[in-house]
Specification:
349 residues; alpha/beta; Rossmann fold; 2 domains; seven-stranded mixed β-sheet; 11 helices; 18 strands; 31% helix; elongated
Length: 349
């Protein structure tokens, strides 16, 4: 079977591949952490090798040629003599990856994960050092470098998933890559506090609720507990979020009424089929505030809402989201406001 053509690699991905080829030119079983472009390049560089891949933002059912997609699970690393990929953004996610890798790779395996210098910290070295005997950095190239790890030292209990009960009547479960972890972030708390006003202000019955960008599933679980007659869809583009939400809803006893899907902006939800959307939008893209990202999600919510359906949103009070909500969705009322957060309810025209 011929491989899909290999697209050009970004500099940091090219560094990861070059480092892997230098350190482990004859690897036979390879795990890739990162996007398809890197996985395809690895498969092309190691003909005949078994290649497994995990990318947090690529659904497991997305087509793959020349490699096999896996969730972040011990089987992803089983018997691998090379792990190559991109460093995740958070130390928690790196810890999740490193702990599973240490328990599955061969004793002489090489791990090389590359990142941009500006996104790297000493804490990443420490996270790897908790699970590997030897951790070092490559020489820098184009403002990037790779962290290399050898000598797996498994045995300690896996640190993820974690769970905690924090101001909600159920345990919040989280994988390492889930936003806010096993805690209740303050934006979600503000939206939960406004639930009485939100549900009282909605017009008509509520049979289908969507938690858009579900994170760890706090809003989906809370809505399912509050409205036992409703069905809930929790959706997020991140595998870590989806995996965390599944654990949260199952342990809360509402898993049979909550459908959890991994897609981008609820793309698989049919138009005009939803009574209420709950949304705690991402406030940042990297280090910068990105209002356009939230506006794209507002448009997705408007698409899936039935006429008269409601969109409940929490956002930083200094952002001018209300004007956008009026334009994209429809008439918008303020449910609550503090110097930090504003909660609004928009009605679909």
């Amino acid at each position: 079977m011929s491989l899909t053509p290999v697209p050009p690699l970004a500099p940091v991905a090219a560094l990861a591949l070059d480092d892997a080829r230098e350190l482990s030119p004859a690897a036979a079983t390879i795990t890739v952490i990162g996007p398809d472009a890197l996985t395809l390049a690895v498969a092309a560089s190691y003909p005949g090798a078994t290649v497994r891949a995990f990318d947090d933002l690529t659904p497991l059912d997305h087509p793959a040629v020349g490699f096999t997609r896996f969730p972040l699970h011990p089987a992803l690393f089983d018997g691998s003599d090379l792990v190559v990929g991109l460093l995740p953004k958070s130390i928690a996610e790196l810890t999740d990856i490193a702990s599973l890798a240490a328990g599955g790779v061969t004793a002489d395996a090489i791990v090389t994960l590359a990142g941009r210098d500006k996104h790297m910290s000493r804490g990443m070295n420490t996270a790897l050092e908790s699970w590997f005997h030897d951790v070092s950095a490559s020489r820098g190239r184009q403002k990037s470098r790779a962290l290399r790890a050898r000598g797996p030292q498994p045995g300690a209990p896996l640190p993820y998933p974690r769970h905690a009960s924090v101001d909600v009547p159920f345990a919040i479960y989280a994988r390492g890559g889930a936003f806010a972890g096993a805690t209740l972030d303050i934006g979600t708390r503000a939206l939960l506090d406004a639930f009485p006003a939100i549900f009282a202000s909605h017009r008509g019955s509520i049979e289908h609720i969507v938690d858009l960008g579900c994170g760890t599933g706090v809003l989906a679980t809370s809505a399912a507990l509050r409205l036992p007659q409703a069905r809930v869809t929790a959706t997020d583009r991140s595998w870590a979020a989806v995996a965390s939400t599944r654990l949260t809803v199952d342990h809360a006893g509402v898993g049979s009424r909550v459908t959890v899907t991994q897609d981008d902006a609820g793309a698989t939800i049919a138009d005009g089929t939803v009574d209420m959307v709950l949304f705690n939008p991402p406030f940042h893209d990297g280090a910068a505030v990105d209002e356009d990202m939230s506006h794209r999600m507002f448009r997705s919510a408007a698409r899936m809402l039935r006429p008269g359906g409601s969109l409940a949103v929490v956002y930083n009070s200094h952002l001018r989201h209300r004007t956008a909500l009026e334009r994209i969705v429809g008439p918008t009322d303020q449910m609550s406001r503090t110097p930090k957060f504003t909660v609004t309810l928009s009605r679909r025209r």
